[in-house]
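Regression test case RT-17, inverse folding.

Input:
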């Protein structure tokens, strides 16, 4: 899990909060989720599909600088192309293209 927050370090509570966000993707709730950092209901869940066998799930807060990304082993439950964020997908594609070691094939 890769995380970034407005604070200078990541706490256990923040990680537990991000895991709670992850569990909410199973229910199909994608917007107005409580941010584990600022506690506003301002987190949205986005997906990327930068390569044929690559999926990512992003959690972005509109109120603070919280960003968390999960690298999925397959399509996430409730994955929908309508929730693909083109900006994040371009970022993930660029990261994969610049990787020093190629992603192992499945």
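Golden output:
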């Amino acid at each position: 899990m890769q995380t970034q927050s407005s604070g200078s370090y990541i706490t256990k509570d923040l990680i537990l909060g991000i895991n709670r966000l992850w569990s909410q993707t199973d229910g199909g709730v994608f917007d107005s989720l409580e941010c584990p950092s600022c506690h506003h209901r301002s987190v949205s869940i986005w997906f990327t599909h930068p390569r044929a066998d690559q999926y990512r799930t992003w959690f972005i807060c509109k109120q603070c600088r919280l960003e968390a990304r999960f690298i999925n082993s397959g399509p996430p439950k409730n994955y929908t192309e309508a929730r693909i964020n083109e900006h994040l997908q371009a970022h993930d594609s660029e990261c994969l293209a610049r990787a020093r070691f190629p992603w192992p094939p499945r």
